[in-house]
Amino acid sequence: MVREQSRGPGSGASGAVGRMAMAAPNAGSAERFTQAVMPHLDAAYNLARWLVRNTHDAEDVVQEAYLRAFKFFGGFQGGDARPWLLKIVRNTSYTFLERNRPAALAEEFDERVHGQDAPALDAEATMVRSVESRMLREALEELPVSFREVLVLRELEGLSYKEIAELAGIPIGTVMSSLARGRERLREALLRARAKEGTRGL
Amino acid sequence: MVCDDNARLLHGYLDGELDLVRSLEIEEHLKSCPDCAQELWNQRTLRKAFRAASVYDRAPAGLAERIRAGVVQQQDKGAQQEASASAGASVGAAEAAEEREAPKKAPVQPIRVVTSKRSAWNWLAVAAAILITFAVSWRVAPELSQRRNADMQAGVQADVLTEEILSSHIRSLQPDHLYDVRSTDQHTVKPWFNGRLDFSPTVRDLSEDGYPLVGGRLDYVDHRAVAALVYQRRQHLINVFVWPEAKGNEVAMQTKSVQGYNMVPWEGEGMYHCAVSDLNKGELEQFTELLRK
Q1: Which of A52, A86, A106 is the last residue of a domain?
Q2: Within an 8 Å CB–CB cutoff, is residue A158 touching chain B?
Q3: Helix %, strand %, coil % for chain A, to 5?
Q4: What's the CATH code of the domain at A188?
Q5: Are B216 and B229 within 8 A, CB to CB?
Q6: What residues of chain A score a pLDDT lower than 50?
């Protein structure tokens, strides 16, 4: 159904980085490195910001991720550095969250609570007519990290399912389901927010 | 309510990630299922909201500088460790640092030596070049100026063509102008041109490389009907215009940036090709390399 067969969770981010040699950076490689990865700084920061949900922490995470990327740069095969860099940013973000905000990773999405009001609405009420950026940001911020992550990679970075699968170490089918559920949750959150502000529909 | 079976696939469809068979099935289903059609519409509206600049968080000023400084520091540290490891325990840190500095200074002097040795030869070479220039301009100058006229004409022609192609590209981005045939399958797109053009453009599927084919259409460039193939890279659309080379009508287009769009032309297989996109130049060139393989 989907073009690519998944590579399975084994091809996870940490696995790929682990395989790379810990080659000491040679003289001159700093220049090559910055040329390859500096153009992707916005992407790196955007992902880190949406994963750790705090601007200061995101800066720290990105700085650390770049230093790690520099260390592993010998193992970079060339080509598009963006997915490669984003994978390291993602891993660094998760390490940061594990250490400093374990609750953010453990947050469970209670479907019985959050899912209950959606089916009761008729088609007219669930219609998404327009969405304000502010509301979208708030709704995205509240999503569990696994949904938030695929949405950011897909909608903001424009990565393909295959790239997301490789980056997050999940099968391609799971990328599609996570996007489907993530978007559904996002839409419900937007509808709830709009209901609070007293208007039907969006 | 959206049909359970299709709920997930609808997202694959929205993202352009389904194969042709599934895409067509979903399209068929959408015709008969207003709920799913509505859901797709909802999701597209949501997607538009993501495009708003204020959802994307750009790196703050100064971060790039801090990272560069950190990388240089780490590189120095690495070089220092390497140097002290290779020099052995008896070498102090100061000497290791000196050793590290050495390669940077080294290249300056040898170059100077080489220059002085070679200078006599260089003068001879200059003299010879002047002689040759005289000889050549004497004989060839009239021919050259003729050719320059022809070049200028070709240049003007190329500029006109560049503008035509750019306008076609921009027009194609307006709603409902992009495709005559919308398909991700090269075996659907290529035959579609049969009977519509007097040549058959090469259509390649580059989805494996991250440049999926999304469709094709007829366009009009260089006073003739041409094929326009549409590819996609993330959210960037790429138009590839293809038309046959004509004898006596050579065009010399060049890779260039116009109004924020990049254009990469090339000739091959008896055809002119020109890729246009707002995609960055590096990736667009990579894309054309893949197409030419």
Answers
A1: A106
A2: yes
A3: 70, 0, 30
A4: 1.10.10.10
A5: yes
A6: 1-25, 27, 109-123, 200-201
Cβ-contact B213, B205 below 8 angstroms: yes
Contacts of B278 (CB under 8 A, 6+ apart): B236, B237, B260, B261, B262
- The terminus-to-terminus CA distance of chain B in angstroms comes to 47
Q: What is the separation of C-alpha A98 from the centre of its chain, rounded to a whole number of angstroms?
A: 16
CATH number at residue A85: 1.10.1740.10
What gap in Å lies between CA B267 and CA B271, rounded to an integer?
6
Q: State the nearest Cα–Cα gap between B67 and chain A, in angstroms.
A: 6
d(CA A162, CA A6) in angstroms, rounded, equals 8
pLDDT higher than 50, residue B6: yes
Size of interface A-B (CB pairs under 8 A): 147
φ, ψ dihedrals at B205, nearest 5°? -95, 115
User: Which range is most confident: B249-253, B258-262, B281-285?
Assistant: B281-285
Query: What DSSP character marks residue A109?
Result: -
User: Measured between alpha carbons, how far is A38 from B107 in angstroms, rounded to an integer?
Assistant: 29
pTM summary value: 0.52
Q: How many domains does chain B have?
A: 2
**Shortest CB distance from A155 goes to which of B47, B59, B63?**
B47
Cβ–Cβ of B46/A131 closer than 8 Å?
yes
Asked if residue B252 is part of any domain, the answer here is yes
The confidence score (pLDDT) of residue B56 equals: 92
- Which chain B positions have a beta carbon within 8 Å of A182's beta carbon? none
